[in-house]
Amino acid sequence: MKIDMHCHTKEGSPDGSIPIEEYIRKLKSLGFGGMVVTDHDSYGGYRVWKETIRGKRHRDFVVFKGIEYDTIDAGHIIVIMPEYLKLRILEMRGLPVNMLIDIVHRYGGILGPAHPCGSKYMSYENSLRARQVSTMMKFDFVEAFNACETRESNFEAECLARVYGKPGTGGSDAHRIACVGLAWTEIPDSIRHESQLINYIKSGGTVKCGGRYYGHTTKDRIGPFNRILVEMFWFYNKFTGWSKIMKRRKEMRKPTLSLATDQPRRRDE
Predict the structure, then answer these.
(1) Which domains does the chain have, with CATH numbers?
(2) In whole angstroms, how far apart are CA 20 and each of 39, 81, 136, 266?
């Protein structure tokens, strides 16, 4: 089964323009069997799926709950938690990467760097300057193909996955409909829930990925001015991360990080 493991929706990402149902329709038309919703620091898109679509429409399509988390020191990290659990702190951007890793693993999730060799401040390799080797070893996978990255960036990401012995995943990173489905990750058809996907990746199951390049991203359109945009992102990420310090500390003081559980779904759902 082919799935897109990096998807942004209108309902969950401030820069997304694709409603989740439209996303699903497009992926199904391209022969995909599922997707991982990875909105920026939000489960907004997944909530729309869960509350208004799941069990009513698109029963032949699997939607996994994920998030693209903005760390304060290591760029964007894709996180996948078990289906019966969510942590509110994952919707509060700005955690240091090693703290994020500890929290995610403590509650049975997996995580890996998105576009790890991409733009400055947004990618792992171009953000974190210390503890890179020890931190890389803690990740569960690496996004080895991103449709919105350059060939050079993806080649380096693929090498990174190979050097550290991590499964390489693929995702479109789509924010516009034309980009949807340009990248894929291949997993067994039997995987229908997040916990199954987590166990498969952690157990070293075979993961294949690939795709085509988009070529119409914002950075492609604005050329050298993208450097200014990148620096603006650094200020935005720092400011919004700092602004949530008190909320994150409040969550951290709670016994289970303000753990909110959903009742586990029936396996035939």
Answers:
(1) 2-261 (3.20.20.140)
(2) 11, 19, 32, 23
